[in-house]
Amino acid sequence: MDLTFAPADAAAIALHVIEQSGLDDWLADQPDTVTRWVRATGFAAQLGSVVLIPDGQGGIAMALAGYGTPETRARGRFHLAGAAAQLPEGTYALHGLDPVRAAEESLGWLLSHYSFDRYRAQKHSTARLIAPEGVDAARIESIAAGEALTRDLINIPASDMGPAELEGACATLATRHGASIDVIRGEALLDRNFPMIHTVGRASARAPRLIDMRWGDSGPKLTLVGKGVCFDTGGLNLKPGSSMGLMKKDMGGAATVLGLAQMIMDLRLPLQLRVLVPAVENAVSGSAFRPGDILTARNGLTVEINNTDAEGRLVLADALSYAAEETPDLMVSMATLTGAARVAAGPDLSPYFTDDAALSQALDQAAAQVADPVWRLPFHTPYEAMIEPGIADLDNAPSGGFAGAITAALFLRRFAGTGRYAHFDIYGWNATPAPARPKGGVGMGARALLAALPDVLKL
Fold first, then answer.
1. β-sheet bridge partners, residue 407
2. C-alpha 372, offset from chain centre
3. Confidence of residue 124 (pLDDT cuts 50, 70, 90)
4. Which of 77, 313, 414, 437 is catalytic?
5. What confidence tens digit (pLDDT) does each residue in 342-393 have?
6. Most buried among 37, 99, 148, 160, using CB within 10 Å?
Protein backbone atom coordinates (compact mmCIF):
# COMPACT_ATOMS: atom_id res chain seq x y z
CA MET A 1 0.00 0.00 0.00
CA ASP A 2 1.71 3.16 -1.25
CA LEU A 3 0.09 6.43 -0.14
CA THR A 4 2.62 8.70 -1.84
CA PHE A 5 2.83 10.54 -5.14
CA ALA A 6 4.90 9.24 -8.04
CA PRO A 7 8.19 11.07 -8.69
CA ALA A 8 7.66 14.35 -10.48
CA ASP A 9 10.00 13.32 -13.30
CA ALA A 10 8.32 9.98 -13.95
CA ALA A 11 6.99 9.28 -17.43
CA ALA A 12 3.25 9.83 -17.15
CA ILE A 13 0.06 9.34 -19.10
CA ALA A 14 -2.02 12.51 -19.36
CA LEU A 15 -5.38 12.17 -17.60
CA HIS A 16 -7.80 14.86 -18.75
CA VAL A 17 -10.63 15.61 -16.33
CA ILE A 18 -13.65 16.81 -18.31
CA GLU A 19 -17.05 18.09 -17.23
CA GLN A 20 -20.05 17.08 -19.30
CA SER A 21 -20.62 20.66 -20.39
CA GLY A 22 -17.03 20.97 -21.57
CA LEU A 23 -16.66 17.77 -23.59
CA ASP A 24 -17.56 19.23 -26.97
CA ASP A 25 -15.16 22.14 -26.54
CA TRP A 26 -12.37 19.78 -25.49
CA LEU A 27 -12.96 17.50 -28.47
CA ALA A 28 -12.97 20.46 -30.83
CA ASP A 29 -9.30 21.00 -30.03
CA GLN A 30 -8.32 17.35 -30.61
CA PRO A 31 -7.27 15.49 -33.76
CA ASP A 32 -10.08 13.77 -35.67
CA THR A 33 -8.77 10.35 -34.64
CA VAL A 34 -9.20 11.20 -30.97
CA THR A 35 -12.65 12.69 -31.51
CA ARG A 36 -13.84 9.66 -33.47
CA TRP A 37 -12.49 7.26 -30.85
CA VAL A 38 -14.15 9.09 -27.96
CA ARG A 39 -17.47 9.29 -29.81
CA ALA A 40 -17.27 5.61 -30.72
CA THR A 41 -16.81 4.58 -27.10
CA GLY A 42 -19.92 6.50 -26.06
CA PHE A 43 -17.95 8.52 -23.51
CA ALA A 44 -20.11 11.47 -22.41
CA ALA A 45 -18.00 12.72 -19.45
CA GLN A 46 -20.49 11.40 -16.93
CA LEU A 47 -19.18 11.37 -13.39
CA GLY A 48 -16.97 8.34 -12.78
CA SER A 49 -16.64 7.31 -16.42
CA VAL A 50 -13.22 6.60 -17.92
CA VAL A 51 -11.97 6.08 -21.44
CA LEU A 52 -8.47 5.14 -22.61
CA ILE A 53 -7.25 6.50 -25.93
CA PRO A 54 -4.71 4.27 -27.71
CA ASP A 55 -1.53 5.61 -29.26
CA GLY A 56 -1.65 3.32 -32.30
CA GLN A 57 1.33 1.28 -31.08
CA GLY A 58 -0.37 -0.83 -28.43
CA GLY A 59 0.02 1.75 -25.69
CA ILE A 60 -2.09 4.46 -24.08
CA ALA A 61 -1.83 7.95 -25.55
CA MET A 62 -4.02 9.57 -22.90
CA ALA A 63 -6.98 8.91 -20.65
CA LEU A 64 -10.19 10.84 -20.00
CA ALA A 65 -12.12 10.95 -16.74
CA GLY A 66 -15.68 12.21 -16.70
CA TYR A 67 -16.34 14.89 -14.08
CA GLY A 68 -20.09 15.06 -14.54
CA THR A 69 -21.94 18.20 -13.49
CA PRO A 70 -21.86 20.32 -10.32
CA GLU A 71 -25.13 18.64 -9.32
CA THR A 72 -23.80 15.10 -9.64
CA ARG A 73 -20.52 15.98 -7.91
CA ALA A 74 -22.43 17.44 -4.98
CA ARG A 75 -23.73 13.95 -4.21
CA GLY A 76 -20.28 12.63 -3.25
CA ARG A 77 -16.57 13.39 -2.96
CA PHE A 78 -13.19 12.08 -4.11
CA HIS A 79 -14.62 11.40 -7.55
CA LEU A 80 -11.31 10.72 -9.27
CA ALA A 81 -10.57 7.96 -6.80
CA GLY A 82 -13.27 6.04 -8.63
CA ALA A 83 -11.49 6.72 -11.90
CA ALA A 84 -8.16 5.65 -10.40
CA ALA A 85 -9.65 2.28 -9.54
CA GLN A 86 -10.58 1.74 -13.21
CA LEU A 87 -7.26 2.76 -14.71
CA PRO A 88 -4.56 0.21 -15.55
CA GLU A 89 -1.35 0.22 -13.58
CA GLY A 90 0.83 3.15 -14.52
CA THR A 91 1.63 6.76 -13.68
CA TYR A 92 -0.78 9.55 -14.53
CA ALA A 93 -0.73 13.36 -14.61
CA LEU A 94 -3.92 15.34 -14.05
CA HIS A 95 -5.08 18.05 -16.43
CA GLY A 96 -8.15 20.24 -16.19
CA LEU A 97 -8.55 20.93 -12.46
CA ASP A 98 -7.88 24.09 -10.49
CA PRO A 99 -5.52 23.72 -7.47
CA VAL A 100 -8.32 23.51 -4.87
CA ARG A 101 -10.10 20.68 -6.64
CA ALA A 102 -6.79 19.07 -7.55
CA ALA A 103 -5.82 18.95 -3.86
CA GLU A 104 -9.07 17.20 -2.88
CA GLU A 105 -8.92 14.77 -5.77
CA SER A 106 -5.23 14.03 -5.20
CA LEU A 107 -5.91 13.07 -1.60
CA GLY A 108 -8.74 10.83 -2.74
CA TRP A 109 -6.42 9.27 -5.31
CA LEU A 110 -3.84 8.44 -2.64
CA LEU A 111 -6.54 7.05 -0.36
CA SER A 112 -7.76 4.81 -3.18
CA HIS A 113 -4.56 2.85 -2.51
CA TYR A 114 -5.60 2.14 1.08
CA SER A 115 -6.56 -1.40 1.97
CA PHE A 116 -6.73 -3.21 5.28
CA ASP A 117 -4.62 -6.26 4.57
CA ARG A 118 -3.45 -7.33 8.02
CA TYR A 119 -5.34 -10.62 7.84
CA ARG A 120 -5.83 -11.15 4.11
CA ALA A 121 -4.45 -9.66 0.91
CA GLN A 122 -6.81 -7.05 -0.50
CA LYS A 123 -7.16 -5.30 -3.83
CA HIS A 124 -6.56 -1.58 -4.20
CA SER A 125 -5.84 0.87 -6.97
CA THR A 126 -2.43 0.52 -8.62
CA ALA A 127 -2.59 3.68 -10.74
CA ARG A 128 -0.10 6.23 -9.37
CA LEU A 129 -0.38 9.98 -9.64
CA ILE A 130 2.17 12.75 -10.07
CA ALA A 131 1.35 15.60 -7.67
CA PRO A 132 -0.50 18.25 -9.69
CA GLU A 133 1.09 21.66 -10.01
CA GLY A 134 -0.02 24.05 -7.28
CA VAL A 135 -0.81 21.47 -4.59
CA ASP A 136 1.18 20.87 -1.42
CA ALA A 137 2.27 17.29 -2.08
CA ALA A 138 3.97 16.74 1.29
CA ARG A 139 0.88 17.94 3.16
CA ILE A 140 -1.44 15.67 1.19
CA GLU A 141 0.83 12.68 1.79
CA SER A 142 0.88 13.45 5.53
CA ILE A 143 -2.90 13.66 5.65
CA ALA A 144 -3.25 10.37 3.77
CA ALA A 145 -0.85 8.64 6.18
CA GLY A 146 -2.74 9.97 9.20
CA GLU A 147 -6.05 8.83 7.78
CA ALA A 148 -4.59 5.38 7.07
CA LEU A 149 -3.47 5.12 10.71
CA THR A 150 -6.99 5.95 11.89
CA ARG A 151 -8.52 3.37 9.56
CA ASP A 152 -6.07 0.65 10.56
CA LEU A 153 -6.65 1.18 14.29
CA ILE A 154 -10.42 1.00 13.89
CA ASN A 155 -10.33 -2.01 11.57
CA ILE A 156 -8.19 -4.17 13.86
CA PRO A 157 -10.53 -6.40 15.92
CA ALA A 158 -10.61 -6.13 19.69
CA SER A 159 -8.75 -9.43 19.99
CA ASP A 160 -5.69 -7.58 18.71
CA MET A 161 -6.55 -4.03 19.75
CA GLY A 162 -7.23 -3.86 23.47
CA PRO A 163 -6.09 -1.14 25.87
CA ALA A 164 -2.52 -2.44 25.89
CA GLU A 165 -2.32 -2.57 22.10
CA LEU A 166 -3.81 0.91 21.81
CA GLU A 167 -1.14 2.08 24.23
CA GLY A 168 1.44 0.41 21.99
CA ALA A 169 0.14 2.28 18.95
CA CYS A 170 0.45 5.55 20.87
CA ALA A 171 3.99 4.66 21.95
CA THR A 172 5.00 3.86 18.37
CA LEU A 173 3.60 7.19 17.19
CA ALA A 174 5.36 9.04 20.01
CA THR A 175 8.70 7.40 19.25
CA ARG A 176 8.42 8.19 15.54
CA HIS A 177 7.90 11.89 16.20
CA GLY A 178 9.94 12.44 19.34
CA ALA A 179 6.92 12.91 21.60
CA SER A 180 6.80 11.96 25.28
CA ILE A 181 4.27 9.52 26.67
CA ASP A 182 3.00 8.77 30.17
CA VAL A 183 0.58 5.94 30.96
CA ILE A 184 -1.41 5.38 34.16
CA ARG A 185 -2.65 1.79 34.41
CA GLY A 186 -4.95 -0.32 36.53
CA GLU A 187 -5.19 0.48 40.24
CA ALA A 188 -2.87 3.45 39.78
CA LEU A 189 -5.85 5.20 38.19
CA LEU A 190 -7.45 5.33 41.63
CA ASP A 191 -4.25 6.57 43.24
CA ARG A 192 -4.04 9.37 40.65
CA ASN A 193 -7.77 10.26 40.91
CA PHE A 194 -9.24 8.89 37.69
CA PRO A 195 -12.11 7.00 39.30
CA MET A 196 -14.50 6.79 36.36
CA ILE A 197 -11.90 5.48 33.92
CA HIS A 198 -11.06 2.80 36.47
CA THR A 199 -14.71 1.96 37.15
CA VAL A 200 -15.64 1.48 33.51
CA GLY A 201 -12.61 -0.70 32.79
CA ARG A 202 -12.27 -2.70 36.00
CA ALA A 203 -14.50 -5.62 34.94
CA SER A 204 -12.18 -6.55 32.09
CA ALA A 205 -9.14 -8.78 32.38
CA ARG A 206 -7.38 -6.11 30.30
CA ALA A 207 -6.38 -3.29 32.60
CA PRO A 208 -7.81 0.18 31.93
CA ARG A 209 -5.37 3.03 31.43
CA LEU A 210 -5.02 6.71 30.62
CA ILE A 211 -2.51 7.47 27.87
CA ASP A 212 -0.99 10.96 27.88
CA MET A 213 1.18 11.98 24.90
CA ARG A 214 2.88 15.39 24.51
CA TRP A 215 4.73 16.97 21.59
CA GLY A 216 6.11 20.46 20.96
CA ASP A 217 7.48 23.00 23.39
CA SER A 218 6.29 26.33 22.01
CA GLY A 219 3.20 27.90 20.51
CA PRO A 220 -0.47 27.65 21.49
CA LYS A 221 -1.64 24.60 23.43
CA LEU A 222 -3.95 22.12 21.70
CA THR A 223 -5.32 19.15 23.63
CA LEU A 224 -7.07 16.27 21.85
CA VAL A 225 -9.09 13.77 23.89
CA GLY A 226 -10.21 10.56 22.20
CA LYS A 227 -12.59 7.90 23.51
CA GLY A 228 -10.67 4.64 23.62
CA VAL A 229 -13.29 2.01 24.46
CA CYS A 230 -11.62 -0.89 22.70
CA PHE A 231 -14.73 -3.03 22.94
CA ASP A 232 -18.12 -2.25 24.41
CA THR A 233 -20.37 -5.06 25.52
CA GLY A 234 -22.67 -2.51 27.13
CA GLY A 235 -21.67 -3.80 30.56
CA LEU A 236 -24.50 -5.13 32.72
CA ASN A 237 -26.90 -3.29 30.41
CA LEU A 238 -25.72 -5.82 27.85
CA LYS A 239 -26.05 -4.94 24.18
CA PRO A 240 -27.90 -7.40 21.92
CA GLY A 241 -25.67 -9.28 19.52
CA SER A 242 -26.86 -7.20 16.60
CA SER A 243 -25.54 -4.06 18.30
CA MET A 244 -22.28 -5.59 19.51
CA GLY A 245 -20.90 -6.65 16.14
CA LEU A 246 -19.27 -3.30 15.31
CA MET A 247 -18.07 -2.45 18.79
CA LYS A 248 -14.42 -2.84 17.83
CA LYS A 249 -14.92 0.66 16.41
CA ASP A 250 -15.87 2.15 19.79
CA MET A 251 -12.30 3.38 20.06
CA GLY A 252 -12.83 5.38 16.86
CA GLY A 253 -12.44 8.67 18.73
CA ALA A 254 -9.00 7.62 19.94
CA ALA A 255 -8.07 6.40 16.47
CA THR A 256 -9.16 9.68 14.94
CA VAL A 257 -7.24 11.92 17.34
CA LEU A 258 -4.14 9.75 16.85
CA GLY A 259 -4.44 10.08 13.08
CA LEU A 260 -4.85 13.83 13.51
CA ALA A 261 -1.89 13.95 15.90
CA GLN A 262 0.25 12.19 13.29
CA MET A 263 -0.75 14.81 10.71
CA ILE A 264 0.08 17.67 13.10
CA MET A 265 3.47 16.26 14.08
CA ASP A 266 4.41 15.24 10.56
CA LEU A 267 3.59 18.74 9.32
CA ARG A 268 5.52 20.27 12.23
CA LEU A 269 2.75 22.69 13.15
CA PRO A 270 4.04 25.34 15.57
CA LEU A 271 1.98 24.35 18.59
CA GLN A 272 2.10 22.35 21.81
CA LEU A 273 0.11 19.16 21.31
CA ARG A 274 -1.31 16.95 24.01
CA VAL A 275 -3.27 13.77 23.33
CA LEU A 276 -5.25 12.03 26.08
CA VAL A 277 -6.77 8.60 25.47
CA PRO A 278 -8.71 6.81 28.21
CA ALA A 279 -8.35 3.21 27.00
CA VAL A 280 -10.72 0.63 28.48
CA GLU A 281 -12.82 -2.40 27.68
CA ASN A 282 -16.41 -2.27 28.95
CA ALA A 283 -16.85 -5.88 29.99
CA VAL A 284 -19.09 -7.99 32.21
CA SER A 285 -17.85 -9.69 35.37
CA GLY A 286 -18.47 -9.69 39.11
CA SER A 287 -16.69 -6.39 39.44
CA ALA A 288 -18.68 -4.58 36.74
CA PHE A 289 -20.30 -1.32 37.73
CA ARG A 290 -24.07 -1.39 38.03
CA PRO A 291 -27.14 0.61 37.06
CA GLY A 292 -27.99 2.79 40.03
CA ASP A 293 -24.39 3.20 41.17
CA ILE A 294 -23.26 6.73 41.93
CA LEU A 295 -19.70 7.61 40.96
CA THR A 296 -17.59 10.60 41.88
CA ALA A 297 -15.61 12.02 38.97
CA ARG A 298 -12.15 13.53 39.07
CA ASN A 299 -13.55 17.06 39.36
CA GLY A 300 -15.81 16.12 42.26
CA LEU A 301 -19.13 15.92 40.42
CA THR A 302 -21.28 12.90 41.27
CA VAL A 303 -22.81 10.82 38.48
CA GLU A 304 -25.76 8.46 38.74
CA ILE A 305 -25.42 5.46 36.45
CA ASN A 306 -28.71 4.78 34.73
CA ASN A 307 -27.19 2.79 31.87
CA THR A 308 -23.81 1.08 31.91
CA ASP A 309 -23.84 1.26 28.10
CA ALA A 310 -23.36 5.04 28.34
CA GLU A 311 -19.79 4.51 29.44
CA GLY A 312 -17.89 6.61 26.90
CA ARG A 313 -18.89 9.89 28.50
CA LEU A 314 -17.68 8.59 31.85
CA VAL A 315 -14.12 7.87 30.75
CA LEU A 316 -14.02 11.09 28.74
CA ALA A 317 -15.18 13.06 31.78
CA ASP A 318 -12.10 12.18 33.82
CA ALA A 319 -9.79 12.83 30.86
CA LEU A 320 -11.44 16.18 30.10
CA SER A 321 -11.19 17.24 33.74
CA TYR A 322 -7.50 16.39 33.70
CA ALA A 323 -6.94 18.30 30.47
CA ALA A 324 -8.84 21.34 31.72
CA GLU A 325 -6.50 21.67 34.69
CA GLU A 326 -3.87 23.05 32.29
CA THR A 327 -6.30 25.42 30.49
CA PRO A 328 -5.21 24.71 26.90
CA ASP A 329 -5.92 27.26 24.19
CA LEU A 330 -8.20 24.74 22.51
CA MET A 331 -9.52 21.40 23.67
CA VAL A 332 -11.28 18.96 21.34
CA SER A 333 -12.86 15.61 22.19
CA MET A 334 -13.75 13.00 19.62
CA ALA A 335 -15.88 9.97 20.35
CA THR A 336 -18.20 7.39 18.87
CA LEU A 337 -20.57 8.51 21.57
CA THR A 338 -24.26 8.29 20.68
CA GLY A 339 -26.62 6.56 18.30
CA ALA A 340 -28.68 9.74 18.49
CA ALA A 341 -26.00 11.55 16.46
CA ARG A 342 -26.42 9.00 13.69
CA VAL A 343 -30.18 9.43 13.74
CA ALA A 344 -29.69 13.19 13.48
CA ALA A 345 -26.93 13.31 10.87
CA GLY A 346 -26.46 9.83 9.41
CA PRO A 347 -23.16 7.96 9.07
CA ASP A 348 -21.31 10.35 6.75
CA LEU A 349 -21.69 13.64 8.59
CA SER A 350 -19.87 14.45 11.81
CA PRO A 351 -21.89 16.54 14.26
CA TYR A 352 -19.87 18.79 16.53
CA PHE A 353 -20.67 21.04 19.46
CA THR A 354 -19.03 24.28 20.53
CA ASP A 355 -19.98 27.55 22.19
CA ASP A 356 -17.28 29.37 20.21
CA ALA A 357 -18.73 31.09 17.13
CA ALA A 358 -15.32 31.84 15.61
CA LEU A 359 -14.26 28.22 15.99
CA SER A 360 -17.49 27.06 14.38
CA GLN A 361 -17.08 29.42 11.45
CA ALA A 362 -13.51 28.28 10.87
CA LEU A 363 -14.52 24.61 11.06
CA ASP A 364 -17.40 25.00 8.63
CA GLN A 365 -15.27 26.83 6.08
CA ALA A 366 -12.43 24.35 6.39
CA ALA A 367 -14.75 21.35 6.11
CA ALA A 368 -16.11 22.61 2.79
CA GLN A 369 -12.61 23.22 1.46
CA VAL A 370 -11.23 19.77 2.30
CA ALA A 371 -14.34 17.61 1.67
CA ASP A 372 -14.65 16.53 5.30
CA PRO A 373 -18.28 17.34 6.14
CA VAL A 374 -19.22 18.44 9.66
CA TRP A 375 -22.37 19.99 11.11
CA ARG A 376 -22.78 22.08 14.22
CA LEU A 377 -25.34 20.98 16.79
CA PRO A 378 -26.17 23.15 19.81
CA PHE A 379 -25.05 23.00 23.39
CA HIS A 380 -28.69 23.78 24.23
CA THR A 381 -28.45 24.97 27.82
CA PRO A 382 -32.16 24.54 28.64
CA TYR A 383 -31.60 20.79 28.30
CA GLU A 384 -29.20 20.86 31.26
CA ALA A 385 -32.11 19.88 33.49
CA MET A 386 -32.40 16.61 31.57
CA ILE A 387 -28.99 15.45 32.84
CA GLU A 388 -29.64 16.37 36.50
CA PRO A 389 -31.31 13.39 38.24
CA GLY A 390 -31.64 14.95 41.69
CA ILE A 391 -29.97 12.15 43.60
CA ALA A 392 -26.59 13.09 42.08
CA ASP A 393 -25.14 16.03 40.19
CA LEU A 394 -25.45 14.30 36.81
CA ASP A 395 -27.23 11.45 35.06
CA ASN A 396 -25.18 9.47 32.54
CA ALA A 397 -28.25 8.31 30.55
CA PRO A 398 -31.33 10.53 30.82
CA SER A 399 -34.65 8.80 30.24
CA GLY A 400 -37.06 9.86 27.55
CA GLY A 401 -34.93 9.32 24.45
CA PHE A 402 -34.97 12.94 23.29
CA ALA A 403 -31.87 14.94 22.25
CA GLY A 404 -29.47 12.14 23.10
CA ALA A 405 -26.48 13.64 21.27
CA ILE A 406 -27.06 17.05 22.86
CA THR A 407 -27.47 15.76 26.41
CA ALA A 408 -24.30 13.68 26.04
CA ALA A 409 -22.42 16.75 24.83
CA LEU A 410 -23.82 18.82 27.72
CA PHE A 411 -22.60 16.12 30.09
CA LEU A 412 -19.07 16.41 28.68
CA ARG A 413 -19.16 20.20 28.84
CA ARG A 414 -19.49 19.95 32.62
CA PHE A 415 -15.93 18.56 32.71
CA ALA A 416 -14.23 20.60 29.99
CA GLY A 417 -13.47 23.72 32.02
CA THR A 418 -14.01 27.27 30.81
CA GLY A 419 -11.64 27.41 27.82
CA ARG A 420 -12.35 26.95 24.12
CA TYR A 421 -13.85 23.51 23.59
CA ALA A 422 -15.40 21.46 20.81
CA HIS A 423 -16.79 17.95 20.90
CA PHE A 424 -17.20 15.70 17.82
CA ASP A 425 -19.72 12.85 17.98
CA ILE A 426 -18.39 10.69 15.14
CA TYR A 427 -19.38 7.34 13.66
CA GLY A 428 -15.95 6.17 12.53
CA TRP A 429 -17.27 3.59 10.09
CA ASN A 430 -18.09 3.47 6.40
CA ALA A 431 -20.72 0.80 5.81
CA THR A 432 -21.03 1.25 2.04
CA PRO A 433 -17.91 1.32 -0.18
CA ALA A 434 -17.34 4.65 -1.90
CA PRO A 435 -14.44 6.20 -3.84
CA ALA A 436 -11.41 6.48 -1.51
CA ARG A 437 -13.55 5.18 1.34
CA PRO A 438 -13.74 1.37 1.40
CA LYS A 439 -16.02 -0.39 3.81
CA GLY A 440 -14.55 -0.20 7.30
CA GLY A 441 -13.01 2.29 9.66
CA VAL A 442 -12.78 5.90 8.55
CA GLY A 443 -11.68 9.22 10.01
CA MET A 444 -14.27 11.97 10.47
CA GLY A 445 -13.69 15.61 11.27
CA ALA A 446 -9.90 15.38 11.59
CA ARG A 447 -9.07 16.95 8.23
CA ALA A 448 -11.55 19.77 8.81
CA LEU A 449 -10.00 20.50 12.18
CA LEU A 450 -6.48 20.33 10.76
CA ALA A 451 -7.41 22.87 8.09
CA ALA A 452 -9.06 25.16 10.65
CA LEU A 453 -6.21 25.17 13.19
CA PRO A 454 -4.10 27.96 11.60
CA ASP A 455 -7.04 30.32 11.80
CA VAL A 456 -8.32 29.15 15.17
CA LEU A 457 -4.95 29.17 16.94
CA LYS A 458 -3.36 31.98 14.89
CA LEU A 459 -0.50 29.74 13.76
1. none
2. 9
3. confident
4. 313
5. 999 999 999 999 999 999 999 999 999 999 999 999 999 999 999 999 999 9
6. 148
Amino acid at site 128: R
Within its chain, how far is the Cα of 186 from the centroid?
28
Over its C-alpha atoms, the chain yields an Rg (Å, rounded) of: 24
184, pLDDT greater than 90? yes
Best CA proximity match to 427, nearest among 278, 250, 277: 250
Taken in order of first residue, the domains within the chain and their CATH numbers are: 13-129 (3.40.220.10), 141-456 (3.40.630.10)
Q: What is the pLDDT of residues 247-290, one digit of tens each?
A: 999 999 999 999 999 999 999 999 999 999 999 999 999 999 99
The 3-class SS string of the chain reads CCCCCECCCCCCEEEEEECHHHHHHHHHCCCHHHHHHHHHHCCCCCCCCEEEEECCCCCEEEEEEECCCHHHHCCCCCHHHHHHHHCCCEEEEEECCCHHHHHHHHHHHHHCCCCCCCCCCCCCCCEEEECCCCCCHHHHHHHHHHHHHHHHHHHCCCCCCCHHHHHHHHHHHHHHHCCEEEEEECCHHHHCCCHHHHHHHCCCCCCCEEEEEEECCCCCEEEEEECEEEEECCCCCCCCHHHHCCHHHHHHHHHHHHHHHHHHHHCCCCCEEEEEEEEEEECCCCCCCCCCCEEECCCCCEEECCCCCCCHHHHHHHHHHHHHCCCCCEEEEEECCCHHHHHHHCCCCEEEEECCHHHHHHHHHHHHHHCCCEEEECCCHHHHHHHCCCCCCEECCCCCCCCHHHHHHHHHHCCCCCCCEEEEECCCEECCCECCECCEECCCCHHHHHHHHHHHCCC
d(CA 247, CA 141): 30
Q: Is 239 a catalytic residue?
A: yes
Q: Quick check: 165 and 255 in contact, CB under 8 A?
A: no
CA 205 to chain centre: 29
Cβ contact 381:283 at 8 Å: no
Apex 150 CA angle, 145 and 156, nearest 5: 120
CA of 124: how far to CAs of 4, 5, 85, 154, in Å?
Answer: 14, 15, 7, 19
